[in-house]
Amino acid sequence: MHVHLIVTTRRGLRLGFVAIALGVGLGLISQAVAVAEMGPLPVLKVNKARAELGKRLFFDKRVSGDAGISCATCHEPKHGFAHKDALSQGYPGNKHFRNAPGLINVAYKKVWLLDGRIGTNLNDVTREMITEDYIMNMDMRIMQERFKQDPVYVKMFEAAGLGEPSNGGVRKAIPEYLKTLVSHGAPFDEGTMSASAERGLKLFKGKAGCISCHSGPMFTDGKAHNTGVRENFDVWLDAQRHQAFIAYAAFMGVPDYMNLKRDPGAYVQKHNADGSGMGTFITPSLRELKYTGPYMHNGIIKTLADVVAYYNRGGDNDRNKDERMKALKLSNADQKDLVTFLLALSGKPLTGSQYVWQEAYPEEYAVIANWLSVSN
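Below the sequence we write its predicted C-alpha coordinates.
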Protein backbone atom coordinates (compact mmCIF):
# COMPACT_ATOMS: atom_id res chain seq x y z
CA MET A 1 0.00 0.00 0.00
CA HIS A 2 1.29 3.47 -0.90
CA VAL A 3 0.49 7.05 0.06
CA HIS A 4 0.33 9.76 -2.62
CA LEU A 5 1.11 13.39 -1.86
CA ILE A 6 0.04 16.28 -4.06
CA VAL A 7 2.28 19.36 -3.65
CA THR A 8 0.66 22.70 -4.42
CA THR A 9 1.48 26.39 -4.06
CA ARG A 10 -0.68 29.44 -3.42
CA ARG A 11 -1.14 29.63 -7.19
CA GLY A 12 -2.59 26.16 -7.15
CA LEU A 13 0.18 24.78 -9.34
CA ARG A 14 0.56 21.04 -9.17
CA LEU A 15 4.28 20.42 -8.85
CA GLY A 16 4.22 16.66 -8.79
CA PHE A 17 3.65 13.71 -6.47
CA VAL A 18 5.66 11.08 -4.68
CA ALA A 19 4.58 7.67 -3.60
CA ILE A 20 6.25 5.79 -0.76
CA ALA A 21 5.42 2.92 1.53
CA LEU A 22 3.49 3.67 4.72
CA GLY A 23 5.67 4.08 7.77
CA VAL A 24 8.42 6.17 6.11
CA GLY A 25 6.88 9.57 6.78
CA LEU A 26 10.17 11.48 6.90
CA GLY A 27 11.12 10.12 3.50
CA LEU A 28 7.77 11.30 2.16
CA ILE A 29 8.32 14.80 3.53
CA SER A 30 11.89 15.09 2.20
CA GLN A 31 10.89 13.95 -1.27
CA ALA A 32 7.93 16.33 -1.28
CA VAL A 33 10.21 19.22 -0.35
CA ALA A 34 12.65 18.24 -3.10
CA VAL A 35 9.84 18.39 -5.68
CA ALA A 36 8.48 21.67 -4.31
CA GLU A 37 11.91 23.29 -4.46
CA MET A 38 12.05 22.61 -8.20
CA GLY A 39 9.52 25.28 -9.03
CA PRO A 40 7.88 27.61 -9.80
CA LEU A 41 10.18 30.62 -10.08
CA PRO A 42 9.57 33.48 -7.65
CA VAL A 43 8.20 36.77 -8.96
CA LEU A 44 10.76 39.53 -9.54
CA LYS A 45 10.09 43.20 -8.91
CA VAL A 46 10.77 45.18 -12.10
CA ASN A 47 11.17 48.91 -12.74
CA LYS A 48 9.10 49.22 -15.93
CA ALA A 49 10.74 52.39 -17.25
CA ARG A 50 14.24 50.97 -16.83
CA ALA A 51 13.22 47.64 -18.31
CA GLU A 52 11.78 49.36 -21.40
CA LEU A 53 15.01 51.31 -21.80
CA GLY A 54 16.98 48.09 -21.37
CA LYS A 55 14.89 46.43 -24.06
CA ARG A 56 15.71 49.16 -26.57
CA LEU A 57 19.39 48.89 -25.66
CA PHE A 58 19.41 45.09 -25.95
CA PHE A 59 18.30 45.20 -29.59
CA ASP A 60 20.36 48.27 -30.55
CA LYS A 61 23.47 47.61 -32.64
CA ARG A 62 24.95 50.92 -31.55
CA VAL A 63 25.86 49.19 -28.28
CA SER A 64 28.73 47.46 -30.13
CA GLY A 65 31.97 49.07 -31.24
CA ASP A 66 31.27 49.19 -34.98
CA ALA A 67 27.46 49.33 -34.56
CA GLY A 68 27.32 46.00 -36.37
CA ILE A 69 25.81 43.71 -33.73
CA SER A 70 23.45 43.95 -30.77
CA CYS A 71 23.04 41.75 -27.72
CA ALA A 72 20.19 40.08 -29.63
CA THR A 73 22.50 39.11 -32.49
CA CYS A 74 23.78 36.20 -30.41
CA HIS A 75 20.81 35.95 -28.02
CA GLU A 76 17.82 35.59 -30.33
CA PRO A 77 14.31 35.58 -28.82
CA LYS A 78 13.06 32.76 -31.05
CA HIS A 79 15.87 30.55 -29.77
CA GLY A 80 15.20 31.18 -26.11
CA PHE A 81 17.59 34.14 -26.22
CA ALA A 82 20.35 31.72 -27.22
CA HIS A 83 21.53 30.99 -30.78
CA LYS A 84 21.02 28.15 -33.24
CA ASP A 85 24.75 27.86 -34.01
CA ALA A 86 27.01 25.60 -31.97
CA LEU A 87 29.50 28.42 -31.40
CA SER A 88 28.61 32.07 -30.98
CA GLN A 89 29.35 34.61 -33.71
CA GLY A 90 31.33 37.02 -31.59
CA TYR A 91 32.42 40.45 -32.76
CA PRO A 92 32.58 41.08 -36.55
CA GLY A 93 35.99 40.11 -37.90
CA ASN A 94 36.33 37.80 -34.94
CA LYS A 95 34.36 34.82 -33.66
CA HIS A 96 33.64 33.29 -30.28
CA PHE A 97 34.82 29.96 -28.84
CA ARG A 98 31.71 29.02 -26.83
CA ASN A 99 28.01 28.42 -27.31
CA ALA A 100 25.74 31.40 -26.61
CA PRO A 101 23.71 30.46 -23.51
CA GLY A 102 20.01 31.28 -23.24
CA LEU A 103 19.12 34.35 -21.18
CA ILE A 104 15.62 33.42 -20.05
CA ASN A 105 15.64 33.36 -16.21
CA VAL A 106 19.20 34.72 -16.17
CA ALA A 107 18.25 37.21 -13.44
CA TYR A 108 17.81 34.34 -10.99
CA LYS A 109 21.40 33.14 -11.28
CA LYS A 110 23.98 33.52 -8.53
CA VAL A 111 26.98 33.00 -10.81
CA TRP A 112 27.18 33.94 -14.47
CA LEU A 113 28.93 32.82 -17.65
CA LEU A 114 29.73 29.24 -18.52
CA ASP A 115 32.91 29.28 -16.45
CA GLY A 116 31.25 31.07 -13.52
CA ARG A 117 33.90 33.78 -13.44
CA ILE A 118 31.40 36.49 -12.46
CA GLY A 119 29.51 35.97 -9.21
CA THR A 120 28.59 39.52 -8.33
CA ASN A 121 25.64 40.85 -10.35
CA LEU A 122 24.22 41.34 -13.84
CA ASN A 123 25.58 44.88 -13.88
CA ASP A 124 29.10 43.44 -14.07
CA VAL A 125 28.08 40.81 -16.61
CA THR A 126 26.60 43.54 -18.83
CA ARG A 127 29.80 45.58 -18.62
CA GLU A 128 31.98 42.61 -19.60
CA MET A 129 29.80 41.58 -22.53
CA ILE A 130 29.77 45.13 -23.93
CA THR A 131 33.45 45.94 -23.46
CA GLU A 132 35.19 42.60 -24.17
CA ASP A 133 37.00 42.92 -27.50
CA TYR A 134 35.92 39.57 -28.95
CA ILE A 135 32.28 40.07 -27.93
CA MET A 136 30.99 43.64 -28.49
CA ASN A 137 34.26 45.59 -28.36
CA MET A 138 32.72 48.84 -27.13
CA ASP A 139 34.40 51.71 -25.31
CA MET A 140 31.57 52.71 -22.99
CA ARG A 141 32.67 56.34 -23.05
CA ILE A 142 31.98 56.39 -26.77
CA MET A 143 28.73 54.51 -26.28
CA GLN A 144 27.27 57.06 -23.88
CA GLU A 145 28.13 59.89 -26.27
CA ARG A 146 26.32 58.06 -29.06
CA PHE A 147 23.19 57.80 -26.95
CA LYS A 148 23.32 61.43 -25.89
CA GLN A 149 22.80 62.26 -29.58
CA ASP A 150 19.57 60.20 -29.72
CA PRO A 151 16.54 62.20 -28.45
CA VAL A 152 14.64 58.98 -27.73
CA TYR A 153 17.37 57.78 -25.38
CA VAL A 154 17.63 61.18 -23.72
CA LYS A 155 13.93 60.96 -22.81
CA MET A 156 14.03 57.30 -21.82
CA PHE A 157 17.06 57.67 -19.53
CA GLU A 158 15.40 60.63 -17.83
CA ALA A 159 12.07 58.78 -17.46
CA ALA A 160 13.95 55.84 -15.92
CA GLY A 161 15.48 58.10 -13.27
CA LEU A 162 18.97 57.70 -14.69
CA GLY A 163 19.67 61.29 -15.74
CA GLU A 164 21.41 61.76 -19.06
CA PRO A 165 22.60 58.70 -21.04
CA SER A 166 25.61 57.12 -19.35
CA ASN A 167 27.47 53.84 -19.28
CA GLY A 168 26.34 53.35 -15.69
CA GLY A 169 22.74 53.81 -16.78
CA VAL A 170 23.16 51.20 -19.51
CA ARG A 171 24.54 48.77 -16.93
CA LYS A 172 21.41 49.28 -14.83
CA ALA A 173 18.83 49.25 -17.62
CA ILE A 174 19.85 46.07 -19.48
CA PRO A 175 19.80 43.92 -16.30
CA GLU A 176 16.37 45.37 -15.50
CA TYR A 177 15.14 44.24 -18.91
CA LEU A 178 16.63 40.79 -18.37
CA LYS A 179 14.49 40.48 -15.25
CA THR A 180 11.44 40.44 -17.53
CA LEU A 181 12.69 37.32 -19.36
CA VAL A 182 11.07 34.75 -17.10
CA SER A 183 9.68 31.32 -17.99
CA HIS A 184 5.91 31.00 -17.97
CA GLY A 185 3.44 28.44 -19.19
CA ALA A 186 5.68 25.38 -18.84
CA PRO A 187 3.65 22.16 -18.40
CA PHE A 188 5.78 21.37 -15.33
CA ASP A 189 4.70 24.61 -13.65
CA GLU A 190 1.10 24.43 -14.87
CA GLY A 191 0.57 20.85 -13.70
CA THR A 192 -0.26 19.69 -17.22
CA MET A 193 2.54 17.21 -17.85
CA SER A 194 1.79 14.09 -19.85
CA ALA A 195 2.08 10.59 -18.43
CA SER A 196 5.38 10.23 -20.27
CA ALA A 197 6.71 13.43 -18.70
CA GLU A 198 5.60 12.22 -15.25
CA ARG A 199 7.57 9.03 -15.79
CA GLY A 200 10.50 11.16 -16.91
CA LEU A 201 10.29 13.22 -13.71
CA LYS A 202 10.46 10.02 -11.66
CA LEU A 203 13.57 8.97 -13.59
CA PHE A 204 15.03 12.47 -13.21
CA LYS A 205 14.79 12.22 -9.42
CA GLY A 206 15.62 8.54 -9.24
CA LYS A 207 17.45 6.16 -11.54
CA ALA A 208 18.88 8.83 -13.86
CA GLY A 209 20.17 10.89 -10.93
CA CYS A 210 19.82 14.20 -12.77
CA ILE A 211 18.60 15.98 -9.66
CA SER A 212 22.01 15.59 -7.98
CA CYS A 213 23.21 18.57 -10.07
CA HIS A 214 20.00 19.93 -11.61
CA SER A 215 18.06 21.04 -8.54
CA GLY A 216 15.99 24.00 -7.36
CA PRO A 217 13.60 26.19 -9.39
CA MET A 218 16.28 26.77 -12.04
CA PHE A 219 17.26 23.08 -12.19
CA THR A 220 20.92 23.85 -11.46
CA ASP A 221 23.16 23.66 -8.42
CA GLY A 222 25.16 26.65 -9.72
CA LYS A 223 28.40 24.68 -9.36
CA ALA A 224 31.12 23.64 -11.80
CA HIS A 225 31.44 20.02 -12.91
CA ASN A 226 33.34 18.09 -15.57
CA THR A 227 30.94 15.75 -17.33
CA GLY A 228 33.41 14.59 -19.95
CA VAL A 229 32.11 16.71 -22.83
CA ARG A 230 34.50 16.39 -25.76
CA GLU A 231 36.09 19.46 -27.27
CA ASN A 232 34.68 21.25 -30.29
CA PHE A 233 37.84 21.50 -32.37
CA ASP A 234 36.29 24.12 -34.63
CA VAL A 235 37.63 26.49 -31.97
CA TRP A 236 41.22 25.65 -32.86
CA LEU A 237 40.72 24.99 -36.56
CA ASP A 238 39.18 28.43 -37.14
CA ALA A 239 41.79 31.19 -36.75
CA GLN A 240 39.20 33.77 -35.73
CA ARG A 241 37.78 31.56 -32.98
CA HIS A 242 41.25 30.60 -31.82
CA GLN A 243 42.17 34.29 -31.72
CA ALA A 244 39.27 34.92 -29.32
CA PHE A 245 40.26 31.94 -27.20
CA ILE A 246 43.83 33.23 -26.94
CA ALA A 247 42.63 36.69 -25.89
CA TYR A 248 40.43 35.13 -23.21
CA ALA A 249 43.03 32.66 -21.91
CA ALA A 250 45.77 35.28 -21.77
CA PHE A 251 43.59 37.69 -19.82
CA MET A 252 42.48 34.95 -17.41
CA GLY A 253 46.09 33.88 -16.75
CA VAL A 254 45.77 30.36 -18.13
CA PRO A 255 49.24 28.71 -18.28
CA ASP A 256 50.66 27.62 -21.65
CA TYR A 257 47.52 28.84 -23.41
CA MET A 258 49.18 28.98 -26.84
CA ASN A 259 49.57 25.21 -26.75
CA LEU A 260 46.29 24.47 -25.02
CA LYS A 261 43.70 22.65 -27.10
CA ARG A 262 40.90 22.52 -24.60
CA ASP A 263 38.56 24.98 -22.94
CA PRO A 264 39.71 25.40 -19.31
CA GLY A 265 36.23 26.33 -18.09
CA ALA A 266 35.94 27.14 -14.39
CA TYR A 267 39.63 26.35 -13.91
CA VAL A 268 40.12 30.08 -14.50
CA GLN A 269 38.56 30.80 -11.11
CA LYS A 270 41.23 29.12 -8.96
CA HIS A 271 44.13 27.98 -11.20
CA ASN A 272 44.71 24.86 -9.12
CA ALA A 273 48.30 23.69 -9.54
CA ASP A 274 47.25 20.07 -10.03
CA GLY A 275 45.00 21.04 -12.93
CA SER A 276 41.82 20.07 -11.11
CA GLY A 277 38.94 22.15 -12.31
CA MET A 278 40.18 21.97 -15.89
CA GLY A 279 37.22 21.42 -18.19
CA THR A 280 34.58 22.07 -15.53
CA PHE A 281 31.57 24.22 -16.37
CA ILE A 282 28.68 25.65 -14.39
CA THR A 283 25.65 23.36 -14.40
CA PRO A 284 23.21 24.91 -16.88
CA SER A 285 19.55 25.49 -16.13
CA LEU A 286 17.25 22.97 -17.77
CA ARG A 287 14.44 25.44 -18.35
CA GLU A 288 13.59 26.44 -21.93
CA LEU A 289 15.71 23.63 -23.45
CA LYS A 290 13.12 23.29 -26.21
CA TYR A 291 14.47 26.47 -27.80
CA THR A 292 18.15 26.65 -26.88
CA GLY A 293 19.85 23.79 -28.74
CA PRO A 294 22.51 22.84 -29.66
CA TYR A 295 23.74 21.98 -26.19
CA MET A 296 26.79 21.98 -23.91
CA HIS A 297 29.29 24.82 -23.46
CA ASN A 298 30.56 24.32 -27.01
CA GLY A 299 27.36 23.29 -28.79
CA ILE A 300 28.80 19.87 -29.56
CA ILE A 301 25.54 17.95 -28.96
CA LYS A 302 22.69 18.78 -31.31
CA THR A 303 19.49 17.40 -29.80
CA LEU A 304 18.00 16.67 -26.38
CA ALA A 305 17.73 13.00 -27.31
CA ASP A 306 21.48 13.03 -27.98
CA VAL A 307 22.09 14.74 -24.63
CA VAL A 308 20.16 12.05 -22.76
CA ALA A 309 21.95 9.32 -24.72
CA TYR A 310 25.27 10.97 -23.82
CA TYR A 311 24.53 10.84 -20.10
CA ASN A 312 23.08 7.34 -20.43
CA ARG A 313 26.46 6.05 -21.62
CA GLY A 314 28.27 7.89 -18.84
CA GLY A 315 29.69 10.71 -20.95
CA ASP A 316 32.93 10.71 -22.88
CA ASN A 317 36.47 10.25 -21.59
CA ASP A 318 38.21 12.95 -19.56
CA ARG A 319 40.78 12.55 -16.81
CA ASN A 320 38.94 15.12 -14.67
CA LYS A 321 35.46 13.71 -15.25
CA ASP A 322 33.14 13.75 -12.23
CA GLU A 323 33.12 10.35 -10.56
CA ARG A 324 29.33 10.40 -10.54
CA MET A 325 29.30 10.11 -14.32
CA LYS A 326 28.42 6.44 -14.78
CA ALA A 327 26.41 4.55 -17.38
CA LEU A 328 22.73 4.83 -16.40
CA LYS A 329 21.44 1.77 -18.27
CA LEU A 330 18.18 3.47 -19.18
CA SER A 331 16.00 1.73 -21.75
CA ASN A 332 15.02 3.47 -24.97
CA ALA A 333 11.56 4.06 -23.49
CA ASP A 334 13.12 5.56 -20.35
CA GLN A 335 15.22 7.92 -22.44
CA LYS A 336 12.18 9.07 -24.40
CA ASP A 337 10.29 9.74 -21.16
CA LEU A 338 13.22 11.73 -19.80
CA VAL A 339 13.33 13.87 -22.96
CA THR A 340 9.57 14.44 -22.67
CA PHE A 341 10.01 15.66 -19.10
CA LEU A 342 12.84 17.99 -20.09
CA LEU A 343 10.65 19.47 -22.82
CA ALA A 344 7.93 20.01 -20.20
CA LEU A 345 10.27 22.51 -18.53
CA SER A 346 9.90 24.87 -21.49
CA GLY A 347 7.16 27.47 -21.51
CA LYS A 348 5.74 29.86 -24.05
CA PRO A 349 8.26 31.62 -26.33
CA LEU A 350 9.17 35.18 -25.32
CA THR A 351 8.90 36.69 -28.78
CA GLY A 352 6.14 39.31 -28.52
CA SER A 353 6.45 43.07 -28.25
CA GLN A 354 6.59 42.78 -24.46
CA TYR A 355 10.04 41.25 -24.86
CA VAL A 356 11.28 42.41 -28.28
CA TRP A 357 11.93 46.02 -29.33
CA GLN A 358 10.13 46.43 -32.64
CA GLU A 359 10.63 50.09 -33.50
CA ALA A 360 13.29 51.33 -35.93
CA TYR A 361 16.57 52.88 -34.81
CA PRO A 362 18.31 55.89 -36.38
CA GLU A 363 20.75 54.81 -39.08
CA GLU A 364 23.61 57.09 -38.07
CA TYR A 365 26.58 54.81 -38.37
CA ALA A 366 27.65 53.00 -41.51
CA VAL A 367 28.78 49.50 -40.53
CA ILE A 368 32.04 48.29 -42.08
CA ALA A 369 31.19 45.03 -43.82
CA ASN A 370 34.60 43.47 -43.20
CA TRP A 371 37.01 45.71 -41.31
CA LEU A 372 39.84 43.21 -41.78
CA SER A 373 39.94 44.08 -45.50
CA VAL A 374 39.90 47.87 -45.00
CA SER A 375 43.08 49.81 -45.77
CA ASN A 376 44.00 53.47 -45.30
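The first strand starts at residue 2 and ends at 7.
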